[in-house]
Amino acid sequence: MTTEILAPVQATTGDRVAISIVICTIERSGREERLAEVIRKLQAQEKVDLEIVLVWQGFDPALFPRFDGVTTVITDLCSSADSATSAPTTRATA
Known about the structure:
Elements: E1 12-13, E2 16-26, H1 32-43, E3 48-57, E4 70-75, E5 90-93
Parallel strand pairs: 2-3, 3-4
Antiparallel strand pairs: 1-2, 4-5
């Protein structure tokens, strides 16, 4: 697997700062209310151009979270012990 990290073209614009935040979580973690609270507080930041990416590991489409202004990457990636027998799928929503 190859990972490439690209720096933003311009990290600051005037008095604003561009920040990307990636939150990784798993369905049925029992932390859904806390997740929503964290996203609300991040979105309330001032002088920040914010990009939020939520990486959601789960299998039940009814449980996939949807937040305005958040890109959600949904994956059914399994543990490394199971990876030889099943291929993960990934979907992105915006």
